[in-house]
Amino acid sequence: MTLAKVFEKVTNGGGVPVEFAAYDGSRAGGSDTDVRVEIRSPYAVSYLVRSPGLLGLARAYVTGHIEVHGDMYTTLSRLSHALSEISVADRLKVLASVIDDPLLRAAAATRLDPPSVEVRKTGRLRRHTKKRDAQAISHHYDVSNTFYEWVLGPSMAYTCAVYPTKDSTLEEAQFAKFDLVARKLGLRPGMRLLDVGCGWGGMAMHAAREYGVKVLGVTLSKQQAEWAQKSIAENGLSSLAEVRHMDYRDVPEAGFDAVSSIGLTEHIGQANVPGYFRFLHRKLKPGGRMLNHCITRPDNTRSSMNPDGFINRYVFPDGELEGPGFLLTQMNDQGFEIRHEENLREHYAMTLRDWCRNLDDHWDEAVAEVGSEIARVWRLYMAGCRLGFDQNMVQLHQILGVKLPASQESGMPLRASWGI
C-alpha cells in the first residue's frame, strides 16, 4: 500500500474531497480538489503512530513533516469527523501497512522529540499559582507584538468581536464589541473602570476615548503592557487610561464603578472561579456592574480542557473552560445579581475567520518573525477553534451582574438598552 493511501485510509478519507500526496510520489483521494495534504517525510508516520489521538497529526504538521495546501479551515472541516475517530487500532493499521518498507519501518520505530514549541507536561497540583500563571500567559502572549498586529489587525483585540452585520469588517466588529461592553456596564464620564486581563488595552482606550472613563487595565503579559502604555500615550489618553503589568489579584485599589473581564476567565481554573468573582465583587462600589466575557463549554457536564490536548500543550497552558451554568452560579453565589447573559458563539467563528485570513495574508512575514513552528501552531489552532465554534463544541458567553446596594436598587433600565 502506498504511503498516501495509508493516510487516506487512516483518516477515512475515501469520498472526502481531500487529496493525499507523499514524498514517494504516491497520491490518493480526489485529484481535482482544492485541498491537498502532503506527507513530506517518513517521520510523519512516527508522530502518527506514537502520539495519542490527534496530537500526532498536529506534531507532524507543526514540525513540517506534513503540509496542508489550501485553506486550513476547509481541510479540517472535511476531515474533522474522521480525524476525531483515529484509534489505537487505526495506528496499528498504519504499522501493518508500512512494515514491508524499510524506510517507513525505521521511521515508525523512531521515537521523535515533540516540537520545540510544545509545553512539557508539569505537575497539575501547582496550577494557577501566580508564578505559574505568569509563565503560562507569557508563553502565549509574549510571542511578538508585531506578529499579533498582523493577525489581529489595528484594534489589537484578541477576543471575540461582535459583528453588527455579516458584512462588517473585523475592525468594525471589535469596536462594536467594546461598545457593547461599555453600554452594558452603563459607563459615563467620570466613572472608574477596572479592566482585568486587559490585553493590549483595547477596552481601556475605548472606555477612555468614547466615554470619558478613568480606566485601570492589568495584564500578566509584559509585552502587552508595554504596547498598551505606548498606544495610550500616542492617542493622548494618559490622563484617563493606565495599563499595568501585574496580576489582577494584586490590584490594591477598590471602589470601582465597573469591572470588565474580557477573555481572562479561561485562565483562572475551575477551583479558583469562586475566589475570582469574590475578588471582583469586592473591588466594586455598591451599585457597580461587572461584565464577564469568556469562552465556555456548551454545557456543565463535560470535564474542562484536556490537559494533554493540543491547545494546552501549544497555545494555552493550564487553560480551563467552564460551562455557562457553572459561571452563572458562581457569579451569583459571590454576591452578583445576574441581569443579562448572551451567547456570541457565531461571532467568535467569524472573528477567527478574519484572524485566519490575516495570518494567511502575512504568512511569509509571520514565519520570518516568529519561526515556522509558532506560525504553524497558530494556523492550526485558529482554524480548529473556528471549526469548534461552528460545530458548537465551544461557545462565548457574556454575563452581566450588579453588586446591589443596601437599597436593593439595581440601577438597571427596565429593559435592556443595548443591542448587538
Automatic annotation (TrEMBL):
Gene3D superfamilies: Vaccinia Virus protein VP39. Transmembrane segments: none annotated. It comes from the Bacteria. Keywords: Lipid metabolism, Methyltransferase, S-adenosyl-L-methionine, Transferase. InterPro entries: CFA/CMAS (IPR050723), CMAS (IPR003333), SAM-dependent_MTases_sf (IPR029063). CDD domains: AdoMet_MTases (cd02440). PANTHER family: CYCLOPROPANE-FATTY-ACYL-PHOSPHOLIPID SYNTHASE (PTHR43667:SF1). Belongs to the CFA/CMAS family. GO terms for biological process: methylation. The keyword Methyltransferase applies. GO terms for molecular function: methyltransferase activity. This is Class I SAM-dependent methyltransferase.
